[in-house]
Each structure stands twice: as C-alpha cells, then as structure tokens.
Amino acid sequence: MPMKHFKEESIDKLTISQILYTKQYGLTVDRNLCKGCVVCKLVCPREAITLVSIPKGSSDRIPPPSVDIDENKCDFHAICAVTCPFGAIQVTVNNEAKLPTVEKDAYPTLIRDIQIDSERCQPDCKICEDKCPLNAISIHFETLTNEEKVARKEKNLPATSKKTVIDVNKKICAACRLCEAFCPEKVIKVTKFFDGSIKINQKLCPQGCHNCIDVCPVDALYLDNNRVHVNDMFCIYCGACSNVCPKPQALELSRTSIRHTPIKSGTWNKTLEKLTSTSGLNKELGAKRVDKIKTLVKSLNLPR
Amino acid sequence: MSKNKLPLDSPKIGVFVCQCGSNISSVIDVEDLTRFSKTLPNVAFAENMNYPCDRNGQQKIVEAIKRYRLNRVIVAGCSPRLYEPTFQSCISKADLNPWLFEMANIREAVSWCHKDTPLEAADKAKDILRMAVAKARLLEPLEPINLSINKNVMVIGGGIAGINTSLDLANMGYKVFVVEKTESIGGKMAQLDKTFPTLDCSICIEGPKMVDVGRHKNIEIISFADILKVDGNVGNFKVTIRRNPRYIIAKNCTGCGECRDACPIEYPNTWDMNMGVRKAISVPFDQAVPLVYTINKDHCIECYKCVDACGARNAIDFDQKSEEIEVKVGAIVVSIGYEMHDPVDMDEYGYGKYDNVVTAMELERLLLAAGPTGGKTVRASDGHKPHSIAFIQCVGSRDINKYEYCSGFCCMYTLKHAVMLKEKYKDDIVLHVFYTDMRSNFKGYEEFFNRAQKSGIKFIRVKLENRFITEDSTTKNLTVHAETEDGKPVQQEVEMVVLANAAVPTSKTAELAKMLNIPLSKGGFFAECQPKIRPMDTDVPGVFVAGACHGLIDIPYSVSQGSGAAAEAAAVLSKSSWTIEPIIAKVNEDLCSGCKVCTSVCGYNAINIEKIDDKEAARVTVGLCRGCGICGAACPTGAITMPNYTDKQMIAQVRAALGEKN
Predict the structure, then answer these.
(1) Interchain pair B362, A104: CB under 8 A
(2) What is the three-class DSSP state of A56?
(3) Which residues of chain B make contact with A43, given a CB cutoff of 8 A?
C-alpha cells in the first residue's frame, strides 16, 4: 500500500494523519491554544516540527510563530502532546484520543499542581477566572445545602448562602500563578511545572521593541520606562519570547527543572537534556541514583 | 595430459568438413570445400563427413591423426561454443595436445545466415577455412591450469529456492553460508496464506524447512546483511558482507517478545504491505528464522522500556555497529527472488487513489489469519466485507510499454484467491475475473481452473488494452471498464478490485549482477548461460542462479531449481581441483614498462602492477582472467600476449582473410 499521509490546515487548527488499511493516526494542533513556544519542536524525537514565523503585518503586535508538522515524519507517539505546556496538541488512534508513550510508561506527564481551597473564596468573586490568561478557569456558584452550611459553621468559616465551584482545565493550565497572585483571599496555590530563570540584558535589548511582550502568553513581561522587564513569578519558561527576540543574547531563558510523574525512560532523559540542559539531566539522574542506592542499602539490612 | 609425440615445427594439418545433416550441406558444396582445403598450405589430409561430432566421426578423426601423422586439426562445422571441448578431447585421444585444434564456423556464420546466396556462401566458407588454416599452422601446445577448490558454498537469498539449495548442500556435507537481506529467511512464500493448486497453508509447509535451515549444523545464516563485494573466481570466491545492526545480541535473544509488548512505538509493517503496524522492536512475523528481534532506529525513541523488559537476558545493545565480514567460498548460488511492481504509476487502475483497489499480495495478507485484519477480507473505505470483487489480470505484465513478459504465476494465484473467497463466502460474494489468457499449465493447474469455473466464479475474457477503473465517490464502489475480444464494451460495478500486478526484478538484482560479473537478460532478471540446457549456470563458472531471480517461476519450480543449483554447485565443490583453459593473458616482464594501461582496461580486475625483481610489471591473477585479450590489445609495448591468439597468429588470419599468400 502506498503511504497515505494527509495534512489539513485552517485558522483554528492543523491536522495531520496517517491512514493505514487497519489503523488511523491523527494529530491536531489547536491554533487557539498554541502560543508559539518552542517546547514541542525541542522534544520531538522525529524532528518533525518546525516553527514558521508570521510577519507583523499592519498590526503593531507581532504574532507568535505557528507550528508546522511534517506529516511524513510524525510517528504519533504524542510526546509533543504530553509536553505542550498549553495542551494544544491532541493525538488520536482510530479516532480515539491516545497517548501511546504515556500508556506504555515510556513518558511522564507534567504535574499541573493547582490547589484551591474554594471554601474560603469570597462570595461572588471571579477574579481568578478573569485573570487567567489561558481561560483555564471557569467559575459558577451553587446554593449551599443545610448540611454544608452546618459544616462551614463547624469549620469556623464565615456564613454565606452560595458556594464557589471552580473548575480548572488542567489540560491547558500552564501554571503561571497569575490566579494565585490576584486571589484576594490567597486560597490558591500553584506550583510551576517548569522552573528556571529569565533575564533581560538591558544593554542589548533594543529600545522600542516589544516582540517578547506581544507573544508572552501569561503576562510575565511588561514595559516600564520604555524598557522590557520580567515578572519572574509569572514566567512559565515556555520560550515563546526568545523565539521572537531579534537579538538572541538580549533575552536569556533557561529551564532548570521539570515537575513530572515518576518515570524511568531514556526518551525522558533526552527531553530533559533538550528542555533544560545537561546539568538539569544530571541533577535528575543523580537524584535517581541516590534513590537507587538508598533502596539497595535498605534491602541489604546492614547493621546500624 | 599426455605428451605430444608428433613433430610440431612442420605443421601437418587435417581438415574435417562437417555436413551437419543438411544444416551445412544444403547450402555449401562440402565436397568442393574439402577439395579446396587440400590446396591450402600444410594441409596433409582433408575429408568431409556427415557428423564429425558423433562417435564414428570422432573415431575417424583419431584414426586419420594416427595414420597421416597429423599435428594440427581443423573441424569446419558449427560454433566452437558448442563442440570445441568435444573435439579437443577427441584429438587428445590421439595423443595430440587439445590446443592444437581450430574450429572454422561455417554453420552459424555461413550456411544458416546466407542460405539464399549459396555462391557467395561458398566463397565465405573458403575464406573462413583459409583463415583457420593460417592460424592452425601457428598453433602451439598448451597445458591446462588447475585451481584449488574451497569446500564452502554461499547461497545469496533465503527464499524457498535458496532454502532448498542450502539444505541439499548442507546434507551433502558442505558448509553453507546463507546471506539474507531481510530479517528472516522465508522469502515471498512466507508472506502467502495458501499455495495453489492444493491450498496448502504456505507457512505450514515452508516453516519446517526454515527451521531446518536455522538449526542445521552445516548452515550459517547471515541475515539482515548486504553483499558489498565479490572477489575471486570459481573455487576461491571472497565475499565481503555487511551485517547491519539489529541492536540485539543474537545469541542472547530468546525471541520471547516481552520487549515488543513493552515498546510504545508502532510503524507500518512492510511485511503486511504497510496495511498493519509493527513495533519499533519486533520480528516481521512470528515464524521468523532466525528468531531474533530488531530495533528500527528510524522510529525508536530510545525509551529503553525494552531493556527493562529484557532484563537479565541482556540481549539489547543500542551501541551495536554494522560489521563487515569476509567469507571465502568455492561456489555461489544466487536466489534473490523478485519484487512486485507498485502500480501507483498506472493511473487507469486508480491504485493508491481509490481506497478499495488493492494488489494481490495485499489481498493475500487480508486473507491470512495472522494478517493485519486477522483474516477478515474488508474494504479500506468502510471496514465491511465486500459482496463483489473484480480481479484484473496482467496489470503491468504483458504490456510492451511496461513489462513485456508474462509474470507467470498471477493466473494461478488469482484462481487461488477466487476459490478461497468463493468457498468461504459462497453466495454472499460475487467474483469476476477479468482475464485475457488463462495460463494454467503444469500439474494440477488446469484441474484447479475447472474447479474455479464450477464454483460459480465469473470469468470475463477481455482485451489487455482499454481497461480502466472508476470510483463512485459516495459508495466507494468501483466500476471496471473493459472491452471483449470482439470490441464490445464491458462494465461491472464491484465493491473491491484486486490487481494482479507484475512481478519484477528486485532493486538489488542489477547491483548484484555487476558485483558477480553476470549479465542481465531483457526483463532485468539474471541471464542464464544457456536458457535451455544450462538453466542454472551463469557466464561465470562457479556462480549459479535458482528461483525467480532469473525468470518468474512458482514455488514447485523454485524448489526444484534450488535443488538443481545445489547439484550444480556440488559438481564444483566435489572436485579436487578446477581446470581452466590456459588461454589467459601472459606478461613478458622484460618488455613491460609498468604503465598500467592494462589495469585500467581490464574488466575483471585480473591484472595488477606489482614489484617483480626491482621492477614494476604487470601480473595476471590466474583465476580471474577470462582471456578476453583487451589488455594485450591495449599494451603499448606488446608485453602481453594471449596464447593461441598471438599477434602473429591473428595477423596471419587477417592476411588469409584478405587473400594474401602466406
């Protein structure tokens, strides 16, 4: 059978597929969720992903680059889908959503850790929903039952008639901590899955350029006195900014660690090496080695 | 070789003119030619006879040599390719050196090609005879050359033909190296569901033979390997092979398949015609021999889940490198089989464009219980079983614009497919076979055709031209358009179409032919030395061909050719030495200037410049030189000569041809 690879593109999505006689593979990039960062391109073992920069056009703001995938190269193992900070990629096998590498325990998932103590929310407050730059939070209110009212009383919580129900779409939440920062009651705690550092080298940063701010998906960059500054707390280290920075050394971004489910996989080691650095990989491997030695020593039952 | 006792310095030539029944005598007056030869210098005896090559004829030649003390013999008859060895051995019975013989070809070169102009033919026969006499006067006795024989043998290609060659030779006691390009031996037969006309399960009858090859103490399988270079000659070939890395340590792999279960990556399986998938670490099929897994690094993401699954068996080695090995053998049997033409370039059939058009091999994989659909014949467009199928024969074959030859086995496999489907689905399926000529010769085949006709399969005889297929874009059904012999158009709507696409030489055939120095025949398959009486010999002594690689044949004939080639190879291997004709290039080192012109023109790498006694001079590798004479012609100092084709002899022949007096 000749290979059947297809690619379909629209403003909203990019779909590629491979149709075999007995199996159909598909991959969709949601263009609205994709922020033009560099993560998928870096992690793809098949080197099937490229970023295509889009010219500024008449608008003052530069658009982020768009993702292009070579349908002849893609093997649909969903490594990009799992690592995408914004959950913009979906892989299907026979029209069912699948993560083959995760299912076979060959790749971890990112830990998107958002703790919300919604019992302590201010009544009718929707600040987090409004502030979320990725529209990952949706809030609605429900009337409290009598039992719930009693329970609140026992916990010494202020009396109220409605409860706040917060639904966080963990697939697309990039853990930027904006909600945490703006929460008036401080009931939200977000732990980032990427950690790292970002620096603007003011000497090299061209004045008047705000490409990085234009593309930053989480408002981690701002203009002050016509100079670009970083709000380190919100940066998710996705790298969208460095893609559009005209002076590469003006913006220095590095990832140092990634929070993920436990894994033992060579592919993940490569991801670590590509996304963080060799030192990041060594750190994780070192920690794994220490764990290994600890269990070994324990199993030997050595006398203390 | 017994010593020639007759004086050689004064030539006494005997000429024997052959009538060859009426082959020669109907055009040429052989009596006249005999009389003419008696007038030529040094001819001491001449006579004509009906068949010098038969026993009586040979006896007469021996007697004439003895009686007239002849020391050169000429037979004017057919081509030396056919009978020179016969007459050489004949004159040696009269204690004459076999190379004191010359043949004048007056049959192929005269009587056959000039039968309408007998007068001119007679003149030409005389010219040829005069040339032969001129050369014969200068012939010198030569001694044959003996080469040693390595007792090992190589079989290139482990399909059903190669499997039989290997088993036969191994059972005779020879060490056999089977070189296989893919991961497993078995070839195309291992891909088939059933075989015609008996409907035997293909792998059930081939599998045991594959296993026998795998565990025979005299057979070493070198699989997943490529032939890089073939040096040497009959008795002493040196083959350079690259073993490609499987990233698996073969001796540690138990074939358990736990690594495959752990592997997260799938890619299209060419073994299943890319209809199904296989894992990045896998075997192409469960009965593979050797049962050693292979990692496809093009798709592997190196998660090392397989390493964990393999555990203490330690069979996985990601750092494995390709390895070049050299194997020395006395003979080589080539049985690399064929490939199927990909009909995507034949627009009229819509293959690759219409979902429900498949090739015969694809249908084979659909029928097979171990195939990608688990033996369910379904349409690609909707996954449903088709209720009607059309088979189109001769797709690419018997087409002068594509492949002129008949692919040989398609008629029979189509009958097989149709009978299998009809017997399985009975009235639930309608089958139409669009054929032009049903070729069902050989044992049991015509009977099978009858069985197919009786079972209710529809056979529609159509012209090879003007056939095409259209698709209904909503139902994805197909309409076959064709023309009957009397020009009436035929149209048939079906749910699925199966193409009997042409079988073609493999992508490696031409490359291997070059390495082995054997020519290709018109269709691109290997050329035999003589297609009728030496069907498994090639032009290169010690290299044999078997199976579909030199012409398309089906399984039973591949099996018998495999055994035939084994016998041919054994005839070489069993000899204590191999005798070759002493007509090979001879270098006069005193005249040689070491200019290397000869090395650049030699087509067989048979001549090299070496340091001989403080001087650079050409040296000929005996087994490689074919005696073509090109080096002798090119040598600017005249240092290279070919025995019995010396300048002196050739010039004497030219003078004779021009009618000059000697």
Answers:
(1) no
(2) coil
(3) none
Please name the residue that has the structure tokens 């410049």. Answer: B609
- Mean pLDDT value of segment A176-198: 93
Helix (H, G, I), strand (E, B) or coil at B587: strand
Q: Residue B227's beta-bridge partner residues? A: B241
Contact status, residue B536 vs residue B561, Cβ threshold 8 Å? yes
The type of residue at B223 is S
Structural domains of chain A in order of their starting residue, each with its CATH number: 4-103 (3.30.70.20), 113-190 (3.30.70.20), 194-289 (3.30.70.20)
Give the integer Cα–Cα distance in Å for B150 and B340: 36
Best of A22, A70, A104 to disrupt the B interface (most B CBs within 10 Å) is: A22
ipTM above 0.95, yes or no: no
pTM of the model: 0.85
Q: Is B228 on the interface with A (CB under 8 A)?
A: no
Rounded distance, CA B516 to CA A73, Å? 37
* Residues comprising chain B, all counted: 662
Residues 6+ apart with CB under 8 A from A180: A186, A188, A189, A190
Which candidate from A2, A75, A267 shows the least CB-CB separation from B303?
A: A267
Out of A23, A77, A106, name the one closest to residue B277 (CB): A23
- Considering only CB atoms, which chain B residues are within 8 Å of A270? 302
Q: How many CB atoms lie within 10 A of CB A77?
A: 30
Per-window interface: B 370-389 vs A, CB < 8 A: 372-373, 380
Average pLDDT over residues B201-209: 96
Per residue in B267-280, pLDDT (tens digit) is 999 999 999 999 99
Residue type, A79: I
Cβ-contact B355, B381 below 8 angstroms: yes
Closest by Cα among A183, A151, A149 to A166: A183
Beta-carbon separation of B301 and A79 below 8 A: yes
CB pairs under 8 A between A and B: 80
Band (pLDDT 50/70/90 cuts) for residue A278 is low
Identify any residues that bridge with A277 across adjacent strands, giving them in sequence order: none
**Cα–Cα dist A159/A136, whole Å:** 28
Beta bridge pairs of residue B43:
B13
Which residue out of A21, A46, A92, A270 would a mutagenesis test of the B interface target, given it has the greatest number of B Cβ atoms within 10 Å? A21
Identify the weakest region by mean pLDDT among A241-245, B86-90, B127-131.
A241-245
Q: Are B130 and B563 in contact (CB under 8 A)?
A: no
For helices B555-573 and B160-171, the axis angle rounded to 10 degrees is 40
